[in-house]
Specification:
Number of helices: 11
Strand content: 5-15%
Shape: elongated
Order of helices and strands: HHHEHHEHEHEHHHH
Structural class: alpha+beta
Number of strands: 4
Length: about 270
């Protein structure tokens, strides 16, 4: 079955190339989004451990007007307390934590924004509280946890599965007569299905390996760009060497799921002869 699946993959070169290309594109989109969400989460890890969120004040407001928002924020349901952090305080805290070699001694407070550190009463209501805080006039953005990111990643995975299923369906369409003949001479569904399953497995693994390599290059380029930027270097990017193993595992698992799942969804229709 495995040999037949491999032979079929190479004998339908163009469609296999298309299926691998779609898999690579889907995994790159999903992987990039996941890594951005992961790094954003790491940058706010300390606050998340304290069951807190950060509300950034609109840049157009002066410090006195920004401080005046505290009473409105304290009235929001589920807010236990909130603390105002000025640009200068944010700058000093950043330098104290990350400036080991006096690299940021000339860093200006204007790089940062006034903000509020908000602690919650009930962590299960963080999404509802985030929406209420964002509705307060003068609040520009609220950073909380990554629940929304997880939901969007799941959606991307489902879209990827649908796309690859339809791509593999095109490869099986050319063999519909062959499948029909095999059914008529007594071949079981399993006998016909397994080569397609192995073919999908190989397509998914090939796509995962290529996507992983491209993701590594893209991530490294973005990390270097951020570290060489005067303003964006304030962000802490997790080195890829620290996370490559789970990323590789996730890419391999997603590639197998997309390839095998897409093959099973595609072949099901043609087995009904």
């Amino acid at each position: 079955f495995f040999k037949e699946g491999a032979r079929s993959m190479f004998s339908h070169g163009f469609m296999s190339f298309a299926a691998i290309g779609v898999t690579v594109a889907c995994l790159l989109i999903m992987g990039t989004f996941s890594l951005v969400a992961y790094n954003a989460n790491e940058n706010l890890a300390d606050l998340q451990k304290e069951n807190a969120m950060v509300a950034f004040v609109d840049d157009s407001l002066t410090e006195s007007k920004a401080k005046a928002l505290q009473s409105d924020l304290e009235k929001v349901d589920n807010v236990a307390d909130c603390t105002f952090v000025s640009r200068q305080e944010a700058r000093d805290a950043y330098v104290a934590e990350y400036d080991e070699d006096d690299m940021y001694k000339d860093l200006q407070p204007e790089v940062f924004r006034h903000r509020y550190v908000i602690h919650l009463t009930d962590p299960d209501k963080i999404a509802e509280t985030k929406a209420l805080v964002e509705a307060v006039s003068g609040i520009d953005e609220v950073r909380a946890d990554e629940v929304i990111s997880i939901a969007l990643i799941a959606i991307l995975l489902m879209v990827s599965l649908f796309i690859i299923s339809n791509t593999i369906k095109l490869t099986t369409f050319d063999r519909r007569e062959e499948i029909a003949i095999m059914k008529m001479v007594g071949a079981t569904d399993g006998f016909i299905r397994w080569p397609f399953v192995f073919e999908g497995l190989l397509l998914g693994l090939f796509g995962a390996v290529i996507a992983f390599g491209l993701q590594w290059l893209l991530y490294s380029a973005m990390a270097n760009g951020i570290s060489n930027s005067d303003t964006m270097q304030l962000l802490e990017v997790v080195p890829f060497l620290q996370i490559w193993q789970p990323v590789a595992g996730i890419f391999a698992g997603a590639g197998i799921l997309i390839g095998v799942g897409g093959s099973l969804m595609a072949i099901r229709r043609f087995l009904k002869v």
